[in-house]
Amino acid sequence: MYGYNGKILRVNLTDRSIKVEALDEAKARKYIGGRGLGTRMMMDEVDPSVDALSPANKLMIVTGPLTGTATPTGGRYMAVTKSPLTGTIASSNSGGYFGAELKFAGWDAIILEGKASAPVYMNVVDDTVELLDAAPLWGKALSETTDALEAAHGAKARILAIGPAGERLSLLAAIMNDRWRAAGRSGVGAVMGSKNLKAIVVKGSGKVAVADEAALKDAFAVCMRKIKDNGVTGTGLPTYGTAVLVNIINENGVFPTNNFQEAVFDKAEDISGEALAEKYLKKKDPCFRCPIACGRYCEVDDVKGGGPEYETIWAFGGDCGVSSLGEIIKANYWCNEYGLDTISAGATLAAAMELYQRGLVKKADFGDGPALEFGNADSIVEWTKRMGRVEGFGAKLAQGSYRLCESYGVPELSMTVKKQELPAYDPRGIMGHGVQYATSNRGGCHVRGYMISPEILGLPEKLDRLETAGKPGWAKVFQDFTAAIDSVGLCLFTSFAMGADDYAALYNAVCGGGITGADFVTAGERIWNLEKRYNLAAGIGPDQDTLPPRLLEEPVPAGPSKGLVHPLAKMLPEYYSLRGWDAKGVPTEAKLKALGL
Amino acid sequence: MKVEARLFATLREGRGKVLGIELPEGATVADLAARLTIGRKDIAILLVGGRDAALDKPLSDGDVVSIFPPVGGG
Fold it and tell me: Which tens digit of pLDDT belongs to each residue from A241-255?
């Protein structure tokens, strides 16, 4: 096979068996790889009604056919499992270097089953795979874990690991790789922790076979030119990283502030990408084969490392009313060290702050910790640490904002969709993005269909963010296209510059075969429908295709989006209809058949 | 009339962050951009009062104009 290695590593942690299986080529072609192939394998192997933190759930680390190849950003992998946070299918994407190394070691995917009787880690050197004692690593943060594993297995080893948050089953736990890269969302780190698996170490000496080197060279050149010529991927992201969005989103009046109570943060400039570049940025920190290099490396006081990203700055900044960029960088650092999703962690602190503001959480609940009140910069750092260690009130925070607010009888104060925290864009002023939030198959998420691109940034064309007409169709296409990109092994950011035909050209050159851009998007639609089927079987029905009541009922109080709510009920029927689903939001037999499902 | 120009990212270089600009009545966003020597290709996002605007939009006293070069996503 080309592109694919043709081999899957299946590890049962309960009986410590290690098996090599052939990749089902037909399945791989149909679902591409990564998110799509992982979802297919979950559907085939894991009952959707399973308890996500039980040994019956499986965790799949799945690469794409372009992972590890000479394609722009070709280094991504997906962690696919059933989410303990949302109860939906989860697939969390990460960059860095781990995914490519896994391909070099000869594998397309690792399927992790069961539960080890005591903490273990996995060491993969090409075909040699062993499970080793992780007792000395258990409880250790990411730096210490990575340092110890590099000392044992060499500095060239690529390391994926969980921190204490994952070990202690925080529903906000991420799977980390290459120190501070994160498969961040949906609690995938807790699933790894529930299996008593601390880390995976990989070293590979092979290379990915390419069907047509000359065609790849040509397609690569075309894509690189587009990436370099595009203002976002060629100039904006390399210069400022994602944080440049702080001012853009705030100027549009859609920057959620104080747990979405407001949509303009008057101190946005203090936490902007411009301020980050001026005060704290030390260098860029690119992923494998990435010509964009949006990754940041920052230092403040005794803290240094990767990030922070825009979403992180928003979550700990505007959403918590905090204007100290230094403290936000520290909160980001502790998320990386303890293995927490920065979006859900910051947004959960914001929800706790609103509970305190309303007198539902009392000062005594904080014990000897600082009060979680909007604007308190010290509190975000201290409570991120305690959330990551899952201790005291931090243990409540570690379950996420939905369960936190529910425990106080006010789940509606949790700014979540399907129990997962919404990211950094207030949909009351971005109509298409609201549809995409409500219908996302993994709950509150911006990267399941980044409607900010047309509605705010103007790519591939500028849409009026307040217009509802046509937006359900845009959201659908963005969702389908994204599902395919997430499956092929490239970074979603390439789509600011590249179109479906470009991905098809790269795929054809690497894998052989003649797919068109339309085929590529259709594969994405197939994957989207398969995810939906998994969710329905898991009991996550269309009644959960909604937004928090605040965003549907409470008008934005001030700023450029003043007076707006999200008109979701007006837009959903068109979305379902365009998807070929019934009026209730369930895929029809005809649609599933047409997609080969 | 006087308008407030808010500049971001690379457009701040040599110009500043927030500028109060006097313009003749009837001036448009394009006139403001010309005054600030910002070329059209350097304008990716253009807002007046936080709402999308075109270069030929006439300005009013007190308007806030936000101008961004091609920037990022997240």
Answer: 999 999 999 999 999
Model confidence band, residue A328 (pLDDT cutoffs 50, 70, 90): very high
Identify residue A435 by its one-letter amino acid code.
V
Taking CB atoms and an 8 Å limit, are A245 and B12 in contact across chains? no
Over range A218-228, report the average pLDDT.
98
Residue ranges, CATH 1.10.599.10, chain A: 427-594
Location of each CATH 1.10.569.10 domain in chain A: 242-409
Does residue A23 carry a pLDDT above 70? yes
Q: Tell me, what's the pLDDT at A513?
A: 84
Q: Rounded to whole angstroms, how far apart are CA atoms A593 and A580?
A: 11
Cβ atoms within 10 Å, residue A549:
12
Specify the CATH number for the domain of residue B16.
Answer: 3.10.20.30
Q: Is A341 within 8 Å of A94 (Cβ atoms)?
A: no
The residue of chain B nearest to residue A447, with distances taken between CA atoms, is: B74
Cα separation, A132 vs A326, in Å, equals 39
Which residue range is the domain that position B14 belongs to?
2-68
Amino acid letter, A479: Q
Q: Does any domain span residue B73?
A: no
pLDDT at B74 over 80: no
d(CA A9, CA A247): 45
Q: Do B74 and A311 touch (CB under 8 A)?
A: yes
Per the CB < 8 Å rule, is A457 touching B71? Answer: yes
Rounded to the nearest 5°, which phi and psi values hold at A12? -100, 115
The reply to whether residue A239 touches residue B9, judged by beta carbons under 8 angstroms, is: yes
Peptide bond into B24 cis (omega under 30): no
What does the block give as tokens for A414? 């949790």
**ipTM for this model:** 0.97
The three-point CA angle A85-A398-A160 to 5° equals 75
Q: What would the CATH number be for the domain defined by A242-409? A: 1.10.569.10
For residue A245, the chain B residues in CB contact (below 8 A) are 71-74
Q: Which residues of B touch A (CB under 8 A)?
A: 6, 8-10, 12, 17, 44-45, 47, 49-52, 66, 68-74
Angstrom distance (rounded) from CA A101 to CA A159: 10
CB environment B26-38: b (16+ within 10 A), e (fewer) = ebbbbbbbeebeb
Q: Which of B4, B41, B51, B71 to mutate to test the interface with A (most CBs of A within 10 A)?
A: B71
- The answer to whether B44 touches B68, Cβ cutoff 8 Å, is yes
A404-443 burial code (b ≥16 CB/10 A, e <16): bbbeeeebebbbbbbbbbbbbbbbbbbbbbbbbbbbbbbb
Helix axes A325-338, A142-153, angle to 10 degrees: 50
- Considering the domain boundaries, does residue B74 fall inside one? no
Q: Is A472 on the interface with B (CB under 8 A)?
A: no
CATH topology of domain A7-203: Aldehyde Ferredoxin Oxidoreductase;  A, domain 1 (3.60.9)
- At the top level of CATH, which class does the domain A427-594 belong to? mainly alpha
Whether residue B70 has pLDDT greater than 90 = no
Q: What is the pLDDT of residues A429-482, one digit of tens each?
A: 999 999 999 999 999 999 999 999 999 999 999 999 999 999 999 999 999 999
What per-residue confidence (pLDDT) applies to A422?
Answer: 98
Q: How many domains does chain B have?
A: 1
Mean pLDDT computed over A126-131: 98
Question: What string of H, E and C letters represents the secondary structure of A86-150?
Answer: CCCEEEEEECCCHHHHHHHCCCCEEEEECCCCCCEEEEEECCEEEEEECCCCCCCCHHHHHHHHH
* Spatial CA neighbour of A5 closest among A97, A80, A69: A69
Task: Identify the band that residue A561 occupies on the pLDDT scale cut at 50, 70 and 90.
Answer: very high
Q: How far apart are CA A342 and CA A184, in angstroms?
A: 8
